[in-house]
Amino acid sequence: xxxxxxxxxxxxxxxxxxxxxxxxxxxxxxxxxxxxxxxxxxxxxxxxxxxxxxxxxxxxxxxxxxxxxxxxxxxxxxxxxxxxxxxxxxxxxxxxxxxxxxxxxxxxxxxxxxxxxxxxxxxxxxxxxxxxxxxxxxxxxxxxxxxxxxxxxxxxxxxxxxxxxxxxxxxxxxxxxxxxxxxxxxxxxxxxxxxxxxxxxxxxxxxxxxxxxxxxxxxxxxxxxxxxxxxxxxxxxxxxxxxxxxxxxxxxxxxxxxxxxxxxxxxxxxxxxxxxxxxxxxxxxxxxxxxxxxxxxxxxxxxxxxxxxxxxxxxxxxxxxxxxxxxxxxxxxxxxxxxxxxxxxxxxxxxxxxxxxxxxxxxxxxxx
Length: 368
Hints:
By secondary structure, the protein is of the alpha/beta class. The protein has helices spanning 14-30, 47-53, 71-90, 107-118, 141-151, 160-165, 181-192, 212-215, 218-234, 243-252, 254-259, 272-280, 290-299, 327-337, 352-367; strands spanning 7-11, 34-38, 60-61, 99-103, 123-126, 154-157, 172-175, 198-199, 205-209, 237-241, 264-268, 284-287, 303-305, 320-322, 342-343. It folds into 2 domains: 7-178 and 350-367, Glycogen Phosphorylase B (Rossmann fold); 186-343, Rossmann fold, CATH 3.40.50.
């Protein structure tokens, strides 16, 4: 379909790319035209992920060679972003687009939605409706979710509870009956090959931290680093470092301390299928990430959330537990799951991405 106005898809982080890539693939399959824009919130190239998911490169990159990893670099990226966006709006660069699609709850989500509205383009929000009872926890994600819900006219909620949270929101709400990460995970598992019945044969645990609430509060950050050292004395660990985490390690002096810990490997982030392989071969996961929680729940991977509370229900009461950031809880968990295998689950074949593109296709037909 080439006669309808194109959609505008805005992506800022690697996690957003992974969750949006199956939608882009489905749009390509059905001939839905779109303009893909990278905001530049993550400066790391997406070329590897583009090859992994067989998606087309972005037609526009708003800010290049900036990494919003610290307060200063975030402010710098934000200023550069808005300077570039206002220029694009002034010259009508986005004027012909039918609908802007944003994902999740990052700064790029909010900035993209605001930019689209300033350009006169309606907004669709993917992974809408997640809610915490506390406006400032998690910060800034909860504020971003609520603001974007006010800006969007089409809300793609990942489950019935998220859809219910949007019952008083204006616009159309669609329950996609799952997160698009399901589609991305299924694609990554195809690269893995034949799955063994049990995971955990690598004999190590995986750690992933990136949330501002854990990185910026020094007492919390120190506690978590101390527990990583403790865990490495129990079992081998692989600590996957986000740019913000690496910057914080350097700023606090923890980088050198962790580099000297036996059984602790500090890893750069890897291609998504390689990360999924890392999870499958691990005994357990220690993380503060929502996407990691979702992946673990789908795979059946034992996971401890390094958070006090969570607004996500994926895997809770099953394979996912919350640490409450309590030292004893973290140590008890590591001792329980070190060296243990776990049964790998089959990922559901239903596709949230297809449901989203079904809705976009109906909009395209209405405007063709």
